[in-house]
Amino acid sequence: MRICSNLLRLIRKHEVVDIVVGNPLHMSGDVSPWAAKVQEFAEELRKRSGLAVQLWDERLSTVAAHEILDEAGHDRRGRKYVIDQVAAVVILRGWMESKEQAAARAALIAKR
Protein backbone atom coordinates (compact mmCIF):
# COMPACT_ATOMS: atom_id res chain seq x y z
CA MET A 1 0.00 0.00 0.00
CA ARG A 2 1.36 3.40 -0.90
CA ILE A 3 1.14 6.31 1.47
CA CYS A 4 0.57 9.58 -0.33
CA SER A 5 3.61 11.84 -0.07
CA ASN A 6 1.24 14.80 0.38
CA LEU A 7 -0.07 13.21 3.58
CA LEU A 8 3.47 12.74 4.91
CA ARG A 9 4.26 16.36 3.99
CA LEU A 10 1.21 17.58 5.93
CA ILE A 11 2.21 15.47 8.93
CA ARG A 12 5.64 17.10 8.97
CA LYS A 13 4.35 20.61 8.23
CA HIS A 14 1.87 20.55 11.11
CA GLU A 15 4.26 18.77 13.49
CA VAL A 16 1.80 15.94 14.10
CA VAL A 17 2.67 13.83 17.16
CA ASP A 18 -0.17 11.28 17.10
CA ILE A 19 -2.29 9.95 14.28
CA VAL A 20 -5.79 8.59 14.83
CA VAL A 21 -7.38 6.45 12.12
CA GLY A 22 -11.01 5.35 12.22
CA ASN A 23 -11.30 1.56 12.27
CA PRO A 24 -14.49 0.49 10.42
CA LEU A 25 -15.31 -2.72 12.26
CA HIS A 26 -18.52 -4.65 11.76
CA MET A 27 -21.16 -3.96 14.42
CA SER A 28 -20.25 -7.36 15.92
CA GLY A 29 -16.69 -6.10 16.44
CA ASP A 30 -15.32 -8.39 13.74
CA VAL A 31 -12.83 -7.02 11.24
CA SER A 32 -14.56 -6.07 8.01
CA PRO A 33 -12.75 -6.29 4.65
CA TRP A 34 -12.53 -2.49 4.67
CA ALA A 35 -11.15 -2.52 8.24
CA ALA A 36 -8.42 -4.93 7.13
CA LYS A 37 -7.39 -2.44 4.44
CA VAL A 38 -7.51 0.45 6.91
CA GLN A 39 -5.36 -1.50 9.36
CA GLU A 40 -2.83 -2.20 6.60
CA PHE A 41 -2.85 1.51 5.74
CA ALA A 42 -2.34 2.46 9.39
CA GLU A 43 0.65 0.15 9.72
CA GLU A 44 2.25 1.53 6.57
CA LEU A 45 1.58 5.08 7.79
CA ARG A 46 3.24 4.23 11.12
CA LYS A 47 6.30 2.89 9.33
CA ARG A 48 6.58 5.79 6.90
CA SER A 49 5.84 8.59 9.37
CA GLY A 50 7.65 7.16 12.39
CA LEU A 51 4.69 8.19 14.55
CA ALA A 52 2.25 6.29 16.70
CA VAL A 53 -0.89 5.49 14.72
CA GLN A 54 -3.93 4.70 16.81
CA LEU A 55 -6.82 2.74 15.34
CA TRP A 56 -10.06 3.94 16.87
CA ASP A 57 -13.38 2.13 16.63
CA GLU A 58 -15.59 4.23 14.40
CA ARG A 59 -18.78 2.20 14.79
CA LEU A 60 -21.78 4.51 15.16
CA SER A 61 -19.71 7.65 14.54
CA THR A 62 -21.91 8.55 11.57
CA VAL A 63 -25.03 8.02 13.68
CA ALA A 64 -23.58 10.34 16.33
CA ALA A 65 -22.69 12.87 13.63
CA HIS A 66 -26.30 12.89 12.39
CA GLU A 67 -27.51 13.44 15.96
CA ILE A 68 -25.13 16.39 16.37
CA LEU A 69 -26.30 17.91 13.11
CA ASP A 70 -29.97 17.34 14.08
CA GLU A 71 -29.41 19.13 17.38
CA ALA A 72 -27.71 22.00 15.54
CA GLY A 73 -30.69 22.29 13.18
CA HIS A 74 -28.60 21.47 10.12
CA ASP A 75 -30.67 20.77 7.00
CA ARG A 76 -30.64 17.08 6.10
CA ARG A 77 -30.32 17.84 2.38
CA GLY A 78 -26.83 19.35 2.67
CA ARG A 79 -25.39 16.79 5.06
CA LYS A 80 -23.54 14.68 2.54
CA TYR A 81 -20.95 17.45 2.34
CA VAL A 82 -20.26 17.62 6.09
CA ILE A 83 -21.23 14.27 7.61
CA ASP A 84 -17.80 12.68 7.22
CA GLN A 85 -16.14 15.74 8.74
CA VAL A 86 -18.45 15.65 11.76
CA ALA A 87 -17.96 11.87 12.10
CA ALA A 88 -14.18 12.45 12.08
CA VAL A 89 -14.60 14.94 14.92
CA VAL A 90 -16.66 12.33 16.84
CA ILE A 91 -13.89 9.76 16.36
CA LEU A 92 -11.15 12.17 17.44
CA ARG A 93 -13.15 13.40 20.42
CA GLY A 94 -13.70 9.81 21.58
CA TRP A 95 -9.98 9.10 21.32
CA MET A 96 -9.06 12.31 23.18
CA GLU A 97 -11.57 11.63 25.97
CA SER A 98 -10.18 8.12 26.34
CA LYS A 99 -6.65 9.52 26.73
CA GLU A 100 -7.86 12.02 29.33
CA GLN A 101 -9.64 9.30 31.29
CA ALA A 102 -6.56 7.06 31.20
CA ALA A 103 -4.40 9.94 32.46
CA ALA A 104 -6.87 10.66 35.27
CA ARG A 105 -6.89 6.98 36.29
CA ALA A 106 -3.08 6.88 36.26
CA ALA A 107 -2.95 10.00 38.43
CA LEU A 108 -5.34 8.43 40.95
CA ILE A 109 -3.26 5.25 41.09
CA ALA A 110 -0.07 7.26 41.53
CA LYS A 111 -1.60 9.07 44.54
CA ARG A 112 -2.30 5.80 46.34
Q: What global shape is seen? A: globular
* Highest-level CATH class of the largest domain: Alpha Beta
Structure annotation, total helices: 4
Low-confidence stretches: none
Largest sheet: 2 strands, parallel
Key structural traits:
single chain, 112 residues, Nucleotidyltransferase, domain 5, 2 domains, two-stranded parallel ribbon, globular
Q: Can you characterise this structure?
A:
This protein is mainly alpha-helical. It contains 4 helices and 2 strands; from the N terminus they run αβαβαα. The protein folds into 2 domains: 1-59, YqgF/RNase H-like domain (Nucleotidyltransferase, domain 5); 60-112. The protein has a two-stranded parallel sheet with strand order 1-2. α3 packs across α4 (83-111). It is globular, with a radius of gyration of 17 Å.
Kindly summarize this structure in a few lines.
This protein has 112 residues and is mainly alpha-helical. The chain has helices at residues 5-13, 33-49, 61-71, 83-111; strands at residues 18-23, 52-57. The protein folds into 2 domains: 1-59, Nucleotidyltransferase, domain 5 (2-Layer Sandwich), CATH 3.30.420.140; 60-112.
